[in-house]
């Protein structure tokens, strides 16, 4: 079970600060990050590799949560970041990321995005498809430049997770298919072109994965192919990038493996294969997103109206909802929440915690056992740090929430709450 910290007044605390005070100071809905937790996760990932004594590179998958302050934190933590669009690239650079530490991903990068990546000297481009090989070649030729690339492969492995966030299976829009020979063709093409320096291969099998089996299987399969390609093309990969996808705890039913242990199991599998095949040990790269920020984030909401129908059910409505966290509605994702003023108060009701959006599907937590609530109470929804804010919308013209970082007993606003004015800024009357 996860620990629910409280202060001397019995209030739920985030990074040592009173959640009720945070709600008062910054308003609700607000997403609060405990920076120490983010740093701790990064340190654990590093420790896993250090203990295994291998070459590695950690790239934070910033699609999980990005803001200038987050990129700044990542830059100062000494790891890289992956970006998947011109927008993420722009923000990463503005946030102070070293372009050489960036990996550029995406299954349909535009010419403009590739030009931007090349012009800003992005460290690595993860090439996804044949169209991109040609497009990138054109861009590099025009600018008389070269690029360090990895080939994204679809290893044909099914990760046990939600269909929408499973990406490694053969029927996937991402990457060169391994089985059908597409991958070897892509390798042949890129090796033959001096504009490309092929560092290695990449696969990402999915997200919110608890089992190590899929990663181990992917690692072994890619090593087998690399070994065959060494014979055939005299190509030795420097890098084996196994993507992200490490699962986190949303509810007490989730029991994720410590990320340090996760890393060690993957590295061991690659080491074993490297010995078996007599293949030089590649550097192992990973791209964790959710596991870096997910559990560090908490959404604070204020309770408003309620509805009770005898024998049917109860609804407790809060001032946010599917606009700031689409995951329950989109994936059926489950969360836990606590009553900020007294997380240990006895269970007094079974109610769905719902949002303020004009949709019946706007349910944050369905049929939840919860203490007694009154209008004005603050509810803290836990583990909302990943794929919440970044997937937020202005549906119903609700402004996006504020983001606050808490560290060393201090809170600082890192993203302002949107205003009504912000929401009409691009509109022309
Ligand atoms: N690398 C690649 C190539 C990816 O596509 C992803 C996530 C990651 C790394 C990071 O995966 P993570 O460590 O965060 O699991 N919106 C969904 C998740 C989509 C994941 C997309 N790709 C959700 O809310 O569950």
Automatic annotation (TrEMBL):
Which GO annotations describe the biological process of this protein? lysine biosynthetic process via diaminopimelate
Its recorded reaction(s) are:
meso-2,6-diaminopimelate + H(+) = L-lysine + CO2
**Which positions are annotated as binding substrate?**
290, 327, 331, 359, 387
What is its EC class?
A: lyase
Q: In which pathway does it act?
A: Amino-acid biosynthesis; L-lysine biosynthesis via DAP pathway; L-lysine from DL-2,6-diaminopimelate: step 1/1
Q: Which domain of life is it from?
A: Bacteria
| SUPFAM superfamilies per record | Alanine racemase C-terminal domain-like, PLP-binding barrel
Query: Where N6-(pyridoxal phosphate)lysine occurs, residue numbers?
Result: 63
What's the cofactor?
pyridoxal 5'-phosphate
Where pyridoxal 5'-phosphate is bound, by residue?
A: 245, 287-290, 387
What keywords is this UniProt entry annotated with? Amino-acid biosynthesis, Decarboxylase, Lyase, Lysine biosynthesis, Pyridoxal phosphate
EC numbers for this chain: 4.1.1.20
Q: What does this protein do?
A: Specifically catalyzes the decarboxylation of meso-diaminopimelate (meso-DAP) to L-lysine.
Q: How does it assemble?
A: Homodimer.
Q: Which family does it belong to?
A: Belongs to the Orn/Lys/Arg decarboxylase class-II family. LysA subfamily.
Q: What is this protein called?
A: Diaminopimelate decarboxylase
Q: Which organism is it from?
A: Ligilactobacillus salivarius (strain UCC118)
């Amino acid at each position: 079970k996860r620990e629910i910290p409280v202060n001397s007044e019995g209030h739920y605390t985030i990074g040592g600060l009173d959640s009720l005070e945070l709600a008062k100071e910054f308003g609700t809905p607000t997403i609060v990050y405990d920076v120490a937790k983010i740093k701790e996760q990064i340190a654990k990932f590093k420790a896993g590799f250090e203990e295994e004594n291998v070459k590695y590179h950690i790239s934070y998958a910033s699609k999980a949560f990005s803001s200038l302050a987050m990129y700044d934190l990542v830059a100062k933590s000494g790891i890289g970041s992956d970006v998947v669009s011109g927008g993420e690239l722009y923000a990463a650079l503005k946030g102070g990321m070293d372009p050489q530490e960036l990996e550029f991903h995406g299954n349909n990068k535009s010419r403009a995005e590739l030009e931007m990546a090349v012009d800003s000297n992005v460290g690595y481009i993860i090439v996804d498809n044949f169209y991109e090989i040609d497009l990138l070649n054109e861009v590099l030729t025009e600018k008389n430049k070269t690029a360090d690339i990895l080939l994204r492969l679809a290893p044909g492995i099914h990760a046990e997770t939600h269909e929408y966030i499973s990406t490694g299976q053969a029927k996937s829009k991402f990457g060169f298919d391994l089985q059908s020979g597409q991958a070897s063709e892509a390798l042949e093409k890129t090796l033959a072109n001096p504009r490309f320096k092929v560092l290695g291969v990449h696969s990402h099998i999915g997200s919110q994965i608890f089992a190590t089996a899929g990663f181990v299987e992917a690692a072994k399969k890619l090593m087998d192919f690399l070994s065959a390609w060494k014979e055939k093309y005299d190509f030795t990969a420097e890098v084996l990038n196994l993507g992200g996808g490490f699962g986190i705890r949303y509810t007490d039913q989730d029991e994720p493996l410590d990320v340090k242990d996760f890393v060690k199991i993957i590295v061991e599998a690659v080491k074993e294969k490297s010995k078996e095949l007599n293949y030089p040990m590649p550097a192992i790269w990973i791209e964790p997103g959710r596991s870096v920020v997910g559990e560090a984030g908490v959404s604070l909401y204020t309770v408003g109206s309620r509805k009770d129908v005898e024998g049917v059910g109860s609804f407790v409505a809060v001032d946010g909802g599917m606009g700031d966290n689409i995951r329950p509605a989109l994936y059926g994702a489950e969360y836990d929440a606590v009553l900020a003023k007294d997380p240990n108060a006895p269970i007094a009701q079974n109610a769905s915690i719902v949002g303020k959006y004009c949709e019946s599907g706007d349910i944050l937590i369905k049929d939840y056992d919860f203490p007694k609530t009154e209008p004005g109470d603050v509810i803290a929804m836990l583990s909302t740090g990943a794929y919440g804010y970044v997937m937020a919308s202005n549906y119903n013209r609700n402004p996006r929430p504020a983001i606050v970082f808490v560290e060393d007993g201090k809170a600082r606003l890192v993203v302002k709450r949107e205003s009504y004015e912000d929401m009409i800024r691009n509109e022309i009357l």
